[in-house]
Amino acid sequence: MEVINTIGRRKTAVARVYLKEGSGQMTINHRDVKEYFPTSVLQYTASEAFEVTQTGQKFDVTANIGGGGYKGQAEALRMGIARALIKLNPDYRKPLKDKGLLTRDPRMVERKKPGQPGARKKFQFSKR
After folding, report:
1. Pairing of strands 59-66, 26-28
2. Which of 15, 33, 50, 107 is deepest in the core (most CB within 10 A)?
3. Which helix (DSSP H) or strand (DSSP E) does residue 28 occupy?
4. Contact (CB, 8 A) for 59 and 80
5. Domain residue ranges in the chain
6. CA–CA separation, 45 and 119 (whole Å)
């Protein structure tokens, strides 16, 4: 089996995922997944696609992630892995889609407008 290359995005995070047959090793930016995502919630989020398809120990994942924060990066990685699994086996599409792992979450930070301190916040109004 050759290496499967996909991309996943969330907010401003971008994950380039390389999936190949192996023993379940996950390497992110040349670091182990447990070192890169220290909390168990983020580790579960990153490997949720494997949990849904029960393929956890069959594939090795190498990913390059940039931008965003840890949560956005974990969710971008999850999307990239889900897309790679579908390239590998189209039968995985239905369970992954039912869990919402293939949908790109469109929510982004709203931009700051000029003349205001934030996106929606206004300076205090003074009548006199």
Report:
1. parallel
2. 15
3. strand 26-28
4. no
5. 4-98
6. 29
**Exposure of 47 by Cβ count < 10 A (0-12 exposed, 13-18 middle, 19+ buried)?**
buried
Rounded CA separation 120/111 (Å): 9
CA–CA distance, 91 with 77 (Å, rounded to integer): 20
Tell me the Cα Rg of the chain. 18
Q: How far apart are CA 122 and CA 74, in angstroms?
A: 33
Helix (H) or strand (E) segment spanning residue 62? strand 59-66
C-alpha torsion 76→82→83→86, nearest 10? 180
> May I ask the CATH class of domain 4-98?
alpha beta
* 25 within 8 A of 60, measured Cβ to Cβ: yes
Reported as a single tens digit per residue, the pLDDT across 32-81 is 999 999 999 999 999 999 999 998 789 999 999 999 999 999 999 999 99
Pull the structure tokens for residue 116: 């205001």
